[in-house]
Here is the input.
Amino acid sequence: MSNTMNTTVFQPIAPRPAPVNTEGPVAWVKSNLMADWKTTLATVTIGAVLLWLVPQMLNWALFKAVWSASYEACRAEGAGACWGVITEKYRVIIFGRYPFEEHWRPLVATALLISLLVASCMRMCWKAWLPVLWLVVMAVFFTLMYGNTLGMTKVETDRWGGLPLTLLLSSISLVLCFPIALVVALGRRSKLPAIRSFCTIYVELIRGVPLISVLFMASFMFPLFMPQGTQIDVLLRVLVGITLFAAAYMAEVIRGGLQAIPKGQVEAAATLGLSYWQTQRKIVLPQALAMVVPGIMNNFISTFKDTSLVTIVSLYELTGAMKLALNSDANWRPFVMEGYFFIALIYFAFCFSMSRYSHWVEKQVNKSKLR
Here is the structure.
């Protein structure tokens, strides 16, 4: 027999490629903008369009823009955007038809209202005195705007306009619509047929018509049903119309959150002896509202922008005040585009702030799920 010897040959393993970097701007560009040839083609095409369009926009908006309040310079050949119209008309755009010499009053009132809204969004201010602060600030707001006291001249509500009117309509309607929407959402899930039917009819009736129709009815049709000699201020009628309209949409958002709560939690609460309102307040509503924070904030933003429709009833809020300021002066009338950019910037500032606050609230209510 011959002895065979087995020899082992060492075979080194081929080196593995280095791990792909998944963090940083370069990795983000590769994964989102150049993942395949279709994405790369779309990125290059859009980039080429932007390279052609952005310089022209910058040239029009900044480099060749006219900043001085001179309509002759704005009409000169080769002139870009006429931001001088904002320099000339910004007070009328922001304060509307309010008496020019009394603009300090809506300025102070608006600053107080914005400060109140900011304080209401801060957790440190969520105390028992916050509702009292709302009543005090709103009383001061109406006192400054209306006047007829403390030596201030009287200014009727039909002359209120601009940013103060936009903030007033949106903030009060949103504060009032939330408890109404909460009751209506619970009513639509009630076991009592009368309550459920009434809430359903209200929601479907309001959602079935545009806001313009509601404002038209509140401003022109509703006074016809009042006793002769009885008059309700147009601002109050519009405020009620916007509030009821926003509450109907808000109620459906909240009802969606209520339906997402498992039935077992309600049954467990009943087993523990909790009443209906205790169950809703301590178990159901906290979870339901946390689920629909994006929908609630979306409704808030929509209502804030919908206040621009009150011009149909001759209340000149921010958009209406801008049109009034430019259409009443033939020299500045051709530069309405710049006016729209100005109020669009104001709307964006408020809406973007509400959106970011919504993200913060979502993070706060979702902390328990991350444990």
Notes: The chain has 15 helices and no strands. The chain has a mean pLDDT of 87. The CA atoms of residues 165 and 317 lie 6 Å apart.
